[in-house]
Amino acid sequence: MDLETLRHSTSHIMAAAVKELYPSAKLGIGPAIESGFYYDFDIPDISLTDEDIIKIEDRMREIIKRDERFQRKEIPKSEAVKLFEGMGEKYKVELIKEIPDEKVSTYETGKFIDLCRGPHVESSGNIKAFKLLTVAGAYWRGAETNPMLQRIYGTAFETEEDLKNHITKLEEAIKRDHRKLGRELDLFNIYHDEAGAGLVYYHPRGARLRILLEDFLRKEHLKRGYEFVITPHIAKGHLWNTSGHSSYYRENMYYFEIDEQEYVLKPMNCPGHILIYQSKLHSYRELPIRFFELGNVYRYERSGVLHGLLRVRGFTQDDAHIFCTQEQLNKEIADVLDFAFEMLKIFGFDYEVDLSTRPEKFSGTEENWKHATDALTSALNSKGIKFNIDEGAGVFYGPKIDIKMKDALGRPWQGPTVQVDFNLPERFDLSYIADDGSKKRPVMVHRVVLGSMERFIGALIEHYGGAFPLWIAPTQVIILPIADRHINYAEEIKKIMVENDIRVEVDGRREKINLKIREAQLQKIPYMFIVGDKEEQGKKIAVRARKEGDLGCMDIKAVLDKLKIEIDNKTII
Question: Shortest CA distance to 340 belongs to which of 415, 452, 420?
Fold first, then answer.
């Protein structure tokens, strides 16, 4: 059985149950989604609770037991308007009026009628395993000026075993939620009321993690021949007119005035890198030129879609732009793919690949788009990489390869992207001097290998469940003196560790050692050094690892050697 059809049908059964329990409820939309389904409801004077969800589930089981058939009907659009107006379903009427066809389809299940294209299962009795999950607020059609509806999320599977496995995975995902762990591990916060939604404040441990990742990225880019650049956070509006962002991306940009001139908080780094390229004449001998920047960008997102580190309004990209000849293009794409896959391997991510093609609204010629798409396709094929076609999901100036990172739970996360662009070099009239002395147009490759640093850190937190590998752990070691008299020895060890580039803290609180150990374990710190009389007298350390537990007493050099091997190997545990 097709899961999408099963889930879509289950959303209808849920809506039927809601209508039976709350006759005044008005229906929004109820599609199947990747991991289940949802339905939006406008229920006057009632805020759904966990108890209500249980009631709705029970009523759904009754409807399923009735084994009511899904019956499809096609009716004239005018008749459909009258039908749903008569039922008081104003949201459905709004949708019907926007349908261009003369006829629309409805589905009936028992006494329940819904506007729907289908398809559906044969009858409600075909639904065997389902679960309602959460209730959330959702603006009608996603617009903040529209009424706030109540959205019930659920999921359905063919068997109870599949459902049970999915619920187990969801429970694990809740434990790994980066927003929850971000608070518990004191990594970051978003001060919605005080500073604004979608703006991330990194606390010391979170900042340490980010700096570690950024330093690692800088070294890896230097190895591969990238030049570092830094561009301002703002630029005049006309720059974005030239680039095309004002025409294709304006609703996501922040505009303001300085000295009666229009300025923009940069949503992307590419125009700044283009200005640097344009600042002097380039010979073919200099190409490819690779500019890299950990660039801060700002994009407007509706408050309803903001989500922890994954969807924010201000973020940093590990952004690079490569200016090359057409002859160099395939190799540059291939090298970027190798770079991206190597990074994902280091962090322990599996991946899947999409090729995103020309959107409905695009810049440039169809010929250039075809050339760019062919170049990306050729690079993927030459490496034997399997990929899916994501029709119409390219950016306005070019097609792109999207690499989705798959975490420990198999969930995809937006990660590396590679975009080929013939359009911005045209718009900015970029050139280089060819070997025959003529001016030629370079090709531009836009790429990120981790993506948004915020989103990548969010993905890392959930991938590792907050238990970071030693090499990127914000705190690698915590020293736990058993009593006050052992604090001086703890500080001696700390000094040695710091001198050897180990990130270390001392817990000098007057608490029982078992409490300190338990709290260090909850903080997911890779190693605990426990020091008391015996350790101080023998100049040793009692070592406890996050995963393996007690490793016994070791001398300081042996401990350092162990840590350095694990760090150098970037061991993932």
Answer: 415
Q: Name the DSSP letter for residue 158.
A: S
Q: Report whether pLDDT(72) > 90.
A: yes
| Residue 400 falls in the annotated catalytic set | yes
pLDDT in tens, 194-228: 999 999 999 999 999 999 999 999 999 999 999 99
Percentage of the residues of the chain whose pLDDT score is greater than 90: 85
C-alpha separations of 366 from 67, 286, 361 in Å: 52, 29, 12
**Positive or negative, the Cα torsion across 341, 347, 348, 349?**
negative
Q: Which residues is 156 bridged to in the sheet?
A: 130
Contacts of 461 (CB under 8 A, 6+ apart): 176, 178, 181, 182, 185, 187, 309
Closest by alpha carbon to 93, among 107, 77, 109?
77
Q: Is 324 a catalytic residue?
A: no
- Counting residues of the chain whose pLDDT is more than 70, the rounded percentage is 100
Q: How far apart are CA 216 and CA 218, in angstroms?
A: 5
Active-site residue flag, 270: yes
Q: What is the mean pLDDT of the chain?
A: 94
Q: What is the CA radius of gyration of the chain?
A: 28
- Helices and strands, number each (H, E), in the chain: 18, 28
Question: Is the distance from CB of 225 to CB of 324 less than 8 angstroms?
Answer: no
Q: Which two tokens stand for residue 176?
A: 């790994």
Which of 7, 176, 446, 494 does the annotation list as catalytic? 446
The active-site residue out of 52, 114, 318, 319 is 319
Which one of the listed residues 400, 463, 486, 524 is annotated catalytic? 400
Give helix 77-86 / helix 90-98 axis angle, nearest 10°.
Answer: 170
What pTM does this model have?
A: 0.86
Pairing of strands 36-42, 477-481: unpaired
Given 3-state DSSP classes, what are the helix, strand and coil percentages for the chain, each rounded to the nearest 5?
A: 40, 30, 30
Q: How far apart are CA 87 and CA 70, in angstroms?
A: 19
Report whether pLDDT(409) > 90.
no
Residue 317 is among the residues annotated as catalytic for this protein: yes
Residue type, 300: Y
pLDDT digits (tens, 9 = 90+) for 493-533: 999 999 999 999 999 999 999 999 999 999 999 999 999 99
> pLDDT at position 120, please?
95
* Angle in degrees, CA 5, 25, 303, rounded to 5: 75
Dist CA 115 CA 29 (whole Å):
9
Q: Which of 12, 205, 313, 321 is catalytic?
A: 321
Catalytic residue chosen out of the listed positions 270, 318, 419, 524: 270
pLDDT at 282 over 80: yes
Q: Tell me the domains of the chain and their CATH numbers.
A: 3-171 (3.30.980.10), 188-231+269-346+412-464 (3.30.930.10), 470-568 (3.40.50.800)
Residue 321: active-site member: yes
Known binding-site residues equal 270, 321, 446
Q: Which amino acid does the sequence have at 365? A: T
Binding residues for Zn(2+): 270, 321, 446
**pLDDT of 21 above 80:** yes
And the tokens for 418?
């590679």
- Tokens 């659009």 correspond to what residue? 77
The confidence score (pLDDT) of residue 145 equals 86
Catalytic residue among 120, 151, 273, 299: 299
Question: Is 319 an active-site residue?
Answer: yes
